[in-house]
Specification:
The chain is an alpha/beta fold and 868 residues long. The protein contains 40 helices and 15 strands.
C-alpha cells in the first residue's frame, strides 16, 4: 500500500495524527505500508525514484489536506503528492483517496496548519482535479479516517475475491458501512460454524434478537469475510415461504448441475447439488419467522454453513446465538465516529437513551448528519420528541426506521396473541430494568383494580402461570422480551416507547394505572422480614416508574430499603415521599401522612450516619405534632421517644437518659405502665443509663423490666428476647463477661427456635455470644465464631449491611487479640474503604475502624521488629 499524504496530516492532531490512523488501519488489514519516508539513498532523479516507488505497489492510498508541500526538485511544477497521484493513475493502480473536510467545525489542526500562503492555490486546484476524476471520501477526525480506510481496503479485497470467484453463485447484500462492537460476536459465530472436528455435515446458527439489533449486518459481515473460502454464497429473503421458494429456483438455475436438477422441485435440486459439492458453501436465511417456516429449505447434507437471522428466540440448544444491543461505551464510540462530533458526554447520554440499539444509533446519526445537528442539541430534542425522531433518519442498509421495525412486530403480536400484546402494554410502562413478571402476575386479587379494557385482555393472565407462560412465549417469538433470571424478563426501552406511542391517551392511562396496581399489589406487607428485601429491591425501579409516591407500596419499599441496610437509599426515597405529601393538594405540610413521612425520613437519616441530623429533624417535628395532634397523642410521644434516642446517638447519652426519664411517667399515665410503648421507653431508659456510664444501673433496670415483659408480652415475644439480649450485654459491661456469655448462649437456641436461625435478631445474638466469649478470655473462640457468622450475615443481610460490617470489624479485632496482628491489620484495611463509602468518612463506626487500623498496624510493625 503506497500512502501519499500532505505534511500537516502527519503532524496533527498532536495526540494521534491522521497518518497514524491510516497506518494502523492498513496494518489491521494485514497489508504492507510504503511511503516516501523510507526512501533509500539512490542516484536516480527524485521524480523518477518517486514514480518507481509508487508503481511497485498494488494500491495507492491518498490522504489529502490543504498543505501543498515541497515541489519536486527536478519537476518543480508539481508537489510530491501530485506526482504520487499521477504515477498511481498512470500505472493503473487501485486508488483510494480521502479528502480532509475543511468545512468541519473541529479537525484537530490549528489554522496555521491548514493555510498554505505560498502554494495554497496549487493545492486547491489539485484537490479539485482529484474530486473530478474519481470518488473521494471526506474525513474530519482520525477515528473516522481510520475506519474509512480499513473499510475501503476490506471492500477492495472483497471485490478482488469476488472477481476471482465470478463464475460462482453469489448473492449477498453490500458489506455494512459501519459495524461497531461485533468482533467477539463474529468470533463466537465463526467458532460455532466451524463445528467440531470430524463433523462434515452442515452447521447452522440462528442469530436471534429484537428488530434493529443488527442481526442481518452481522450475518452479511460474516459472509463477506468468508466469501473467498466458499464455492456458493447466497442470501435468501426468508420471511415469506413463497418468496423463499422462488429464490431457490434462481439459485438452482445458477448452480446449473443438470444431472441432479429437478425442474419441478428447485429446493430438492439445490439440496442435491450442495450435498455433492466439493467446496464449502454458505447460505444466509434472512428474517426467518420461526423454525417451521424454514425447515424444508435447510439443506440436510454437504460441507456447508447456514446462518439464520430471526426475532424468534425458540431454537434448539446450541443453535441460537443472541445478538445483543451494544455496550454503552461502544455505542457512544459509534456515535462519535459516525457523526464526527467529539462530544463524548452527549454521546454517552444519547447511547443510554437509545439503549444501544444499532438501528436506532445509525438512524440518529444519519438524522444528525442530514440536518447538521450536534449530539448536544439532538439529545434534549430526542428526550422531548422521542416518538417523532424514531420515525426519522435513514439508516444505512436498513429499509425501515426503528418505529416501523418495532411497530410491525407489535402489530403482528396483537393479531396473533392479544393477551401477549396486553402484557407488552403493561411492561411498556415499567422501568427498562428486569421485571419480576411471575411476581406481578401471581395474584388474581389485583384484577378488581384494572380498567375494563385492561381487564378483558390481561385479566386472564393473573394467577394463571400457564396463560402467562404462553404470553411470554409469544413475546419471545419477536424478541420483544429477553429472559433476565428466574421469573424475570427484560424489555428494551425503545420497545416500551413505541408500545406507549401506539396507544391512545385514554387507553394509555388505563394501562399505566394497571401497571401501577400490579406493582402495588406485589409489594410485601411486612417490610421488616428479610424475605421481603430482595422482592422490594427488584420492584423499586418499577415502583418509581408507575407508583405515586404517596401510595402505601412505595412506603413499604422505602422501609424495606432501611431494614435491609440501605439506609441512604431509604432516606432519599422518604425525602421524595415527604415532598410528594407536602406538595399534594390532598395532604399538605401538616397532614398526618406528611408528618408520618417526616418521622421516617428523620429515622433513616440517623441510620444513614447523621445522628445529629436525625435529632434536629425530630426536634423540628415535635412541636408540629404537639400542636396538630396534641402533646399526649401516641404519635407525639413516639416523636419524643425518637428525639431522645437520636440525642443519645448524636453523642449526648446523659441527655437521652434524662429525656427518656421525663417521657416514661407520661407514657405510664397516658398509655398505661404495661403498654408495649411504655415498656419500650423503659428499655431505652435502661440502655442510655448504661451508655451514660452506669452499666450496673442499666443491668438492674433490664433485670427489673424482663419479668414484666415476660408476663405482659410473653417469654418468647421478640421484644422480650431483645430485653434478654440487653440484660446479657449490660451484665458483661458491668464486669461479668462470663455471665454475659452464658446468658447469650442460653438465649441463642430460643431465638433460633422462635425467630429462625437466620433471622437478623438471631444473628445479632450469635455476634454477642462471640464477643462475650472473647471478653471472657477466649479470643480464638471469638474469632472462630465470628468467622463462621460472617458468611451468613453477608448472605442474609448483604455484604454492606451495618450488621455485616460490624461482624467484619469484630472479626478483625479478635483476630488481632488471638495473636495475628498482621491479619487484623489487613482485614481492617479491606474494611475501612467500604465503611467510608457506605457509612461515610465521618460516621462513628468508620472512625472506630480507622483508629483500630492504626492500632493494629502499629502492633504488626512491633511484632515484625521483634522477629527481625
Amino acid at each position: 500500500m503506497f500512502v501519499s499524504h500532505t505534511s500537516e496530516l502527519r503532524e496533527f492532531p498532536r495526540h494521534g495524527s491522521y497518518v497514524d490512523a491510516v497506518e494502523r488501519a492498513i496494518s489491521a488489514c494485514g497489508d504492507v505500508i510504503v511511503d516516501m519516508a523510507d526512501f533509500p539513498a539512490a542516484d536516480l532523479p527524485s521524480a523518477q525514484l518517486c514514480a518507481e516507488r509508487v508503481r511497485s505497489c498494488d494500491v495507492y492510498v491518498g490522504v489529502l489536506g490543504t498543505r501543498y508541500g515541497s515541489p519536486v526538485r527536478d519537476r518543480p511544477e508539481v508537489s510530491y503528492t501530485e506526482l504520487e497521484f499521477e504515477a498511481a493513475t498512470g500505472a493503473g493502480l487501485e486508488r483510494l483517496v480521502f479528502v480532509l473536510d475543511t468545512g468541519a467545525e473541529v479537525t484537530g489542526i490549528p489554522p496555521s496548519g491548514l493555510i498554505d500562503l505560498e502554494f495554497g492555490a496549487r493545492q486547491e486546484a489539485f484537490r479539485r482535479r482529484v474530486w473530478d476524476s474519481l470518488v473521494t471520501q471526506p474525513f474530519s477526525n482520525p477515528a473516522t479516517l481510520g475506519q474509512l480506510v480499513e473499510r475501503s481496503l476490506r471492500d477492495l479485497g472483497g471485490r478482488h475475491r469476488a472477481r476471482e470467484a465470478a463464475c460462482l453463485p453469489v448473492r449477498l447484500a453490500p458489506r455494512p458501512a459501519f459495524l461497531a462492537g461485533r468482533e467477539e460476536l463474529l468470533a463466537e459465530l465463526d467458532a460455532r460454524l466451524a463445528g467440531p472436528p470430524g463433523h462434515p455435515g452442515p452447521r447452522l446458527v440462528a442469530l436471534c434478537g429484537m428488530g434493529g439489533a443488527g442481526k442481518t449486518s452481522v450475518a452479511v459481515e460474516y459472509a463477506h469475510r468468508h466469501l473467498a473460502g466458499v464455492g456458493v454464497c447466497w442470501q435468501f429473503a426468508a420471511e415469506d415461504p413463497a418468496v423463499l421458494a422462488a429464490e431457490f429456483a434462481v439459485l438452482a438455475a445458477q448452480l446449473g448441475a443438470r444431472e441432479v436438477m429437478d425442474a419441478r422441485d428447485p429446493v430438492a435440486s439445490v439440496h442435491a447439488v450442495l450435498a455433492r459439492a466439493g467446496a464449502g458453501w454458505l447460505l444466509v436465511f434472512d428474517n426467518v419467522p420461526d423454525r417451521a417456516s424454514v425447515e424444508a429449505f435447510v439443506p440436510p447434507a454437504g460441507p456447508g454453513r447456514m446462518l439464520i437471522t430471526t426475532q424468534n428466540q425458540h431454537w434448539p440448544p446450541g443453535q441460537a446465538l443472541q445478538v445483543p444491543v451494544l455496550d454503552p461505551e461502544v455505542a457512544a464510540d459509534f456515535l462519535v465516529i459516525r457523526t464526527g462530533d467529539p462530544d463524548r458526554a452527549a454521546a454517552r447520554g444519547l447511547a443510554a437513551e437509545l439503549g444501544g440499539l444499532p438501528l436506532a444509533l445509525e438512524q440518529a446519526a444519519a438524522y444528525m448528519q442530514a440536518t447538521g445537528t450536534t449530539l448536544a442539541r439532538y439529545l434534549p430534542l430526542f428526550r422531548d420528541r422521542q416518538a417523532d425522531l424514531l420515525a426519522r433518519g435513514e439508516a444505512s442498509g436498513h429499509p425501515a426506521d426503528v418505529a416501523a421495525t418495532l411497530g410491525l412486530a407489535l402489530s403482528r403480536l396483537a393479531e396473533e396473541a392479544p393477551a401477549a400484546a396486553g402484557l407488552m402494554r403493561l411492561l411498556a410502562f415499567l422501568a427498562p430494568e428486569p421485571v419480576p413478571l411471575a411476581l406481578l402476575l401471581a395474584s388474581e386479587q389485583a384484577a378488581g383494580r384494572l380498567g375494563p379494557e385492561v381487564a378483558d385482555v390481561a385479566g386472564p393472565l393473573l394467577g394463571d402461570p400457564v396463560a402467562a407462560g404462553d404470553a411470554i412465549t409469544a413475546l419471545r417469538r419477536y424478541s420483544l422480551v429477553t429472559p433476565a433470571g428466574d421469573g424475570l424478563v427484560l424489555v428494551h426501552r425503545l420497545v416500551q416507547a413505541i408500545t406507549r406511542a401506539q396507544l391512545p391517551a385514554e387507553a394509555a392511562d388505563q394501562w399505566e394505572q394497571a401497571a401501577a396496581a400490579l406493582v402495588d399489589a406485589a409489594v410485601p406487607a411486612d417490610a421488616q422480614r428479610p424475605v421481603a428485601w430482595p422482592v422490594c429491591a427488584v420492584l423499586l425501579p418499577h415502583a418509581l416508574a408507575v407508583l405515586d409516591l404517596t401510595r402505601g407500596g412505595m412506603w413499604q419499599i422505602a422501609q424495606s430499603l432501611g431494614y435491609s441496610g440501605s439506609y441512604p437509599a431509604a432516606r432519599d426515597l422518604f425525602q421524595l415521599i415527604v415532598n410528594a405529601h407536602r406538595d399534594s393538594d390532598a395532604d399538605g405540610p401538616e397532614h398526618s401522612d406528611t408528618l408520618a413521612a417526616r418521622y421516617h425520613l428523620a429515622r433513616w437519616t440517623g441510620e444513614a450516619g447523621d445522628a445529629a441530623g436525625a435529632r434536629d429533624q425530630f426536634a423540628a417535628l415535635l412541636p408540629i405534632r404537639e400542636r396538630v395532634l396534641g402533646s399526649e397523642h401516641p404519635s407525639t410521644l413516639g416523636t419524643r421517644h425518637e428525639l431522645a434516642r437520636w440525642t443519645g446517638h448524636a453523642g449526648d447519652a446523659a441527655g437521652a437518659r434524662d429525656q427518656f426519664a421525663a417521657l416514661l411517667p407520661i407514657r405510664e399515665r397516658v398509655q398505661g405502665p404495661e403498654h408495649p410503648d411504655t415498656l419500650t421507653t423503659r428499655h431505652q431508659l435502661a440502655y442510655w443509663t448504661g451508655e451514660a456510664g452506669d452499666a450496673a444501673g442499666a443491668r438492674d433496670q433490664f433485670a427489673a423490666l424482663l419479668p414484666i415483659r415476660e408476663r405482659v408480652q410473653g417469654s418468647e415475644h421478640p421484644d422480650t428476647l431483645t430485653t434478654r439480649a440487653h440484660l446479657a450485654r449490660w451484665t458483661g459491661h458491668a464486669g461479668d463477661a462470663a455471665g454475659a456469655r452464658d446468658q447469650a448462649a442460653a438465649l441463642l437456641p430460643i431465638r433460633e427456635r422462635v425467630q429462625g436461625s437466620e433471622h437478623p435478631d438471631t444473628l445479632t445474638t450469635r455476634h454477642d455470644l462471640a464477643y462475650w466469649t472473647g471478653q471472657a478470655g477466649d479470643a480464638a473462640g471469638a474469632r472462630d465464631q465470628l468467622a463462621a457468622l460472617l458468611p451468613i450475615r453477608e448472605r442474609v443481610l448483604g455484604s454492606e449491611h451495618r450488621g455485616t460490617l460490624t461482624t467484619r470489624h469484630d472479626l478483625a479485632y479478635w483476630t488481632g487479640q488471638a495473636g495475628d496482628a498482621a491479619g487484623a491489620r489487613d482485614q481492617l484495611a479491606a474494611l475501612l474503604p467500604i465503611r467510608e463509602r457506605v457509612q461515610g468518612p465521618d460516621h462513628p463506626d468508620t472512625l472506630t475502624a480507622r483508629a483500630n487500623l492504626g492500632y493494629w498496624t502499629g502492633q504488626a510493625e512491633d511484632a515484625a521488629a521483634d522477629v527481625s
